[in-house]
Design a protein that fits this description.
The protein is mostly helical. The protein is about 75% helix and about 0% strand. It has nine helices and no strands. It is elongated. About 35% of the residues are buried.
Length: about 200
């Protein structure tokens, strides 16, 4: 008779999110992952499909929380909600602000070497979801008349996504959660210009 598991998949995933966020995929070896998770190599392989599967679970958890918590207000919001999201990227205590940047940005950069289609799919989906949330807010603002109907919302949304990538990269490079604050200010000022036209 099989022994009952002494762990839950969610608890194990929770333990490794921060470790992967801080160190990346390639820097953590199986022995370190065993120490972090409390699982042996066999359990990591059978439960998650190995190191990549464990990383994928952590990345998906990170993305789901960012979408459901940080992005959610933009779905029904307008320009103020976009600005609030951008400011959260450099605000102390925010789930989207870290001196380690963003796990999704870090994964995208590291995956240029790893070349994992599964990791690429999660990263691409995340950025598409963020662009969709930005575009929703911008279209809501158009309906309310706070920005002009001529504003090309999908183009602006794509530019904002690139800006978010830059903010997180600056935070990571400088090792400060607020290193990208100047870029946040620039993007927010451009949003204010949109509202004035």
């Amino acid at each position: 008779m099989a022994r009952p598991k002494s762990y839950t998949v969610e608890d194990v995933t929770e333990k490794v999110v921060f470790a992967f966020w801080q160190h990346g995929y390639q820097a953590l070896g199986v022995r370190e992952l065993e120490q972090i998770t409390g699982l042996n190599q066999y359990a990591i392989r059978t439960e998650f499909g190995g190191k990549e599967g464990l990383y994928l679970a952590a990345l998906e958890m990170y993305c789901e929380r960012a979408v459901s918590e940080a992005m959610a207000p933009m779905k029904e919001g307008g320009v103020p909600e976009i600005a609030a999201f951008l400011r959260s990227l450099v605000r102390d205590g925010s789930m989207t602000s870290s001196k380690f940047g963003c796990l999704v940005v870090n994964t995208g950069i590291e995956n240029a070497r790893i070349n994992s289609p599964r990791l690429d799919a999660v990263v691409t989906d995340y950025w598409n979801t963020l662009a969709t949330h930005f575009a929703s807010s911008l279209r809501n603002a158009q309906r309310k008349g706070s920005i002009a109907a001529s504003v090309e919302t999908d183009i602006v949304a794509g530019g904002l996504v690139s800006g978010v990538m830059g903010i997180h990269t600056r935070n990571r490079i400088e090792g400060r959660h607020d290193a990208g604050a100047e870029l946040v200010d620039l993007l927010c000022s451009q949003l204010e210009v949109l509202e004035q036209t």
